[in-house]
Amino acid sequence: MKKYFVILVALMAGTTGIFAQFAISPVKMNVLYLGIDNPLSISVSGVPDEKVSVEISQGTLNKVSGNEYIAKPTTPGNARIEVSYEIDGQKMAGIMEFRVKMLPVPTAKLAGKSGGNIEKTVLLAQKGVIADLDDFLFDLRYDVTQFTVVSISQGVEKRLISETAIFTAEQKELLTSLNKGQRVFLTDIKARGRGFDSVINLRDLVFTID
Length: 210
Known about the structure:
Layout: E1 5-13, E2 16-26, E3 31-33, E4 38-44, E5 53-56, E6 60-65, E7 68-72, E8 77-87, E9 90-101, E10 107-109, E11 116-118, H1 120-124, E12 130-132, E13 142-153, E14 156-162, H2 169-176, E15 183-193, E16 199-202, E17 205-209
Parallel strand pairs: 3-9, 11-17
Antiparallel strand pairs: 1-2, 2-4, 4-7, 5-8, 6-7, 8-9, 10-12, 13-14, 13-15, 15-16, 15-17
């Protein structure tokens, strides 16, 4: 869902009223995020794209083509984008301020759940763990890179590691042995954003066999 923001700028030159309108349209939302490309559409009505000059107060703002730009802020807080142009020999400018935020941390999920009761048949039908950004509007994906399945039976703890997002055969065997009322823990869940080098830690999952 795109959200558009329009700033109206009215300037007077002598006895002639010169009215100009420019629009900065965040292709995704009214927030810029650190660490990723934030696409923006910046245009001024009645002014060719090549006659429009834009600057950002922090980070970089690069033109892709036409009125399409990529903003990459460097610090959280706020960023001001200034649009400059000329109409009938009159120089004009307008500014829009954006919030700059850190990327949200995804939620580890199994069978669409982040914990609670789970039927054993549902548990055994799952291939593995996913990292979900819920309603985040950017086309950003995280892949789980490893996780550990932990169970405690008669005071004995078993820990089995998968170095992918998929259950190993040993982990599946352990899950199969669980009885109703037992709890299973998915811990040490790590994920990497596609196109990112850094790996982040996700919250543990705790399920009770229903």
